[in-house]
Design goal:
Blueprint lengths: L1 E5 L3 H14 L4 E5 L2 H11 L3 E5 L7 H8 L7 E6 L3 H9 L4 E3 L4 H10 L5 H10 L7 E6 L2 E6 L5 E5 L2 E5 L4 E4 L3 H8 L3 E5 L2 E4 L3 E6 L5 E5 L7 E2 L1 H13 L1
Parallel strand pairs: 1-2, 1-3, 3-4, 4-5
Antiparallel strand pairs: 6-7, 8-9, 8-12, 9-10, 11-12, 13-14, 14-15
Helix pairs in contact: 2-3, 3-6
């Protein structure tokens, strides 16, 4: 059995590993100091279980678990959190395995016995319980494995048939999310310009006419010019005037 301990504090990782070793001497313990490192280790080592700190700088534990949900066989997850009444209520409400810091051996044994996969609905609720913070990365699982892209690099989200394509200056990613879900999560930073398109407000440079007389959005760093519908044209112009 492989167990990945994820915490930005080295002492906390070491303590958890000691407890795991006492309870499960046959287990192989891995460790990660941040969310992105955890995702890389999951892809390379395929651990069976994550002991996952919730509050970490950058990509937090809820976001890590959200990205894991795109895997075909995601590992089980036990969340670790310092006492926070609001966060604790969210964890209890969603009936996910969790540990309060500092972790006690008896509680770890209980959590190990009850650990399981965390589903998408639980994660969406937990993100709300942690203050509604949007993800810092979007992710997808392809033939190349688990891929992520920082939201700060995304120029547009375009709905194409069964997938939404996140486009950046150097690459694109096929996402399992719907455009409606992405708009709900990232609506402060992205603008709806068409029923099938959201564009990053920070990278919206202007508008240009196409050969058919319609309007296209000009985005910094990419050649793509997503179509702007007549319904959304006024708010796009308003955004440009305000910037």
């Amino acid at each position: 059995m492989k167990i990945l301990v994820v915490d930005d504090e080295a002492l906390a990782r070491e303590r958890l590993e000691r407890l795991v070793t006492r309870l499960l001497p046959e287990a192989c313990c891995l460790e990660a100091g941040d969310g992105l490192q955890a995702l890389r280790i999951v892809e390379q080592q395929a651990p069976d279980l994550l002991l996952l700190d919730i509050r970490m700088p950058g990509m937090d534990g809820i976001e890590v678990a959200t990205h894991l949900d795109s895997l075909e066989n995601p590992p089980a997850v036990i969340f670790c959190t310092a006492y926070d009444e609001y966060a604790l209520q969210a964890l209890q409400h969603q009936a996910v395995a969790y540990l309060l810091k500092p972790v006690r051996e008896t509680e770890l044994a209980r959590a190990l016995a009850g650990a399981g996969r965390v589903n998408r609905l639980q994660l969406a609720s937990l993100r709300g319980g942690e203050g509604g913070v949007a993800r810092s990365h979007v992710s997808s699982h392809s033939h190349r494995g688990l891929e992520t892209m920082p939201v700060a690099e995304v120029r547009s989200f375009i709905a194409e048939q069964k997938y939404v394509v996140a486009r950046g200056p150097e690459r694109e990613l096929l996402l399992p999310d719907t455009l409606k879900e992405l708009e709900s999560e990232f609506g402060d930073d992205f603008l709806r310009i068409h029923r099938n398109a959201l564009v990053a407000r920070r990278y919206l440079l202007g508008l240009e006419r196409d050969d058919a007389g319609g309007w296209r959005a000009v985005l910094e760093g990419v050649d793509e010019r997503p179509a702007v519908s007549r319904r959304h044209l006024a708010q796009v112009k308003q955004r440009l005037l305000a910037s």
